[in-house]
Amino acid sequence: MSENLLDLRKLKKYYPIKGGVFRSHVGDVRAVDDVDLKIHKGECLGLVGESGCGKTTLGKTILRLHNATSGRIYFKQTEDEVERIEGLLESESPADRKEASRLLKDVDLTAMNGADLRKQRGKIQIVFQDPSNSLNPRMLIKNIIAEPLLIQKLATAKEVDFRVDELLKTVGLSGNHMRRYPHEFSGGQRQRIAIARALATKPEFILMDEPTSALDVSVQAQILNLLKQLQKDFSLTYLFVTHHLLVVKYITDRIAVMYLGRIVEVAKTADLFAHSLHPYTKALLSAIPIPDPTTKTEKIILTGDVPNPSNPPAGCRFHPRCSYAKDICKQVEPQLMDAGEGHTVACHRWKEI
Amino acid sequence: MEKLIETINLYTDFHTFEGTVKALNGVDIFVRKGETYGLVGESGCGKSVTVRSILRIVQSPGRIRDGKILLYFSEENKEKSIDILTRPETYMESVRGSDISMIFQEASSSLNPVFSIGEQVGESIFFHRLPEILEAAIDQLKAEVSKVGNPLTRTWKSFSLRMLEKELSANVAYDKTVAEIDERLYLVESLASDAQEKAQLISVRNSTRKSMPLVNLVRKIPFLRRYRKILDTIVTGRVVDLLTELGVSNPTAMVKRYPHELSGGMQQRIVIAIALACHPRLLIADEPTSNLDVTIQAQILELIKELKKTKISSVLFITHDLGVVAEVCDRVSVMYAGDVAETALVRELFAKPLHPYTKGLLNSVPKVVQEGQLNTIPGIVPNLIHPPSGCRFHPRCPFVMDQCKVEKPAYIEIESDHYVACHLYAAKGETK
Fold it and tell me: Interface pTM (ipTM) of the complex?
């Protein structure tokens, strides 16, 4: 089995809702609720779902842009080590649990602080959705890309120009773009700059938060090809968050489908598109507009909207929109079950449908 | 099938501080009766400007420089066309929302946050279908007035009835005058005789008002103007019917709600309801689903397809998503930098694209069965302040010839219903 770069255990991110005269805590928006996910080293994992299902929140929680409410994020730990710590955490004796929390300080991204965290931050990077908002309009391209290098102390002032030039070339721009401002570039070029900035600290993991959805189709293809190339050259691991399913199919190795804060299905890309198991995934896949007028697929049209995550339906969260829902779906929340060959699904009835 | 609307050699410019943006460069498109017609292209290629020109709502500093926009709306005479660019603004007011209506890209920003759904959907019914509503109200009141025992109520009802009748006759008279002026304008235009008479007719049309002094006075008096309440009830009833048809659950409660209470998909349905309120001949949908999720997008596309069968005759669909085009459209035009590059039936366009840009565009979309790398179109969309000479695609075209750099290719019909603007096929078009 391949090595896990990131291992998420029971990760939760709740946003408190304040109400009343004293702004007291009246409820939670459960954006990410009990997510277990493994990201293998060197793979590109796609995270798909409708807007508001928590995919961006999950990504940003991994990066500690948001602090997790609870749960653990193991970074670069072996499976055995993770299991050992998880075992200690669940054990009865307080001594074991104390031992576990001591160990977690070094391996768990949610427990790290200060200098330790800063050290790890160089290894995990992000490319945001809209490059015109994620680049500071008052900074030169050179300074934008050099900033992480200087903060992480990866380059001295003398080397910076050389490194920036090198980075710009890897993303397909040239060194004489260094003394320009972001507004002088087109959307595709700005996204390339954002990618160069993410690459600056030689990361192992990059979170791609819908990197192509603000771009035109012809430019989107250029960026996708660039990302694929970079992954090969620098042996990167991607978490690719998007709602565009054909893009996901093109670029990812595995896909995790998210619905209302929970992962409902994880499978290899080809496997998922060939035979998906969860009814939500089936509906999602059938809803993709296919750019070929000769193929007419039978569409599963879901009724209604995504429910409110502050008050998710009891039992399976998908049951009000699911055509296969039975009594058990309304009462018991399904856990991720193994369906063979690394295909996991959270549905009570996946065997029948 | 006959044409419903046609643009001939349309040029629209935007006069900005940096220079003139030549957004449309001679656009020739037409929509037939009963078809779903798609306009595709990357952002900034002029799709939205084309339809905004058709409705004459190009925002400042934009101007329509040259060209013709012909409407073939007459039922009796199929050849009769009206060039809306020569018509006065009051004529456009009667067309927009009534004969041609539009769905804008972002539903949340095209709804007014301070009016309820019922008021917003009902507005266009009030504006364009007032005589109809007045007749319905009069019928209803006539039936009621004889049954009422209370003399006070009866006086009130018969007063309302008289007011409504006056309003109706003023409206009918206005419509008649306006129709006469329009007919006269058409004749003057087709004979191409008198420019002076035409100018005079336009000024008369613009200054014509509904003459109903008594009604106008009554409508200014707080208590008396409540006679119009019956109109509100009738319009609300119609809105509820419409929303039911669009598959909105609980429409009676919906008319009292405000846009912020609704989800994105539901807001888009309301915008569609506004557009359909007066049963338009042409529905223009400007990227109606690009801000929605795939499952909601599927719902909305299904709704538009369904409505196409029952309610609206033609749809002009703007999108940048080739998947959506393949699903809903019958015929498509591909636009590039203000030019129409290619027009064909949807199957034909996907099966054998001719223009190099269309080929590039189709190859750069991830497919369901994707083999190898995605192909890309090198370079970026040109700046339209200084557009490339000749064919605007030539700097990015893999088949560029010397001729392309100097001469704009003619837009010719290669096969029946397959138009292309490219020098590669010019010879073929001539021999045909």
Answer: 0.80
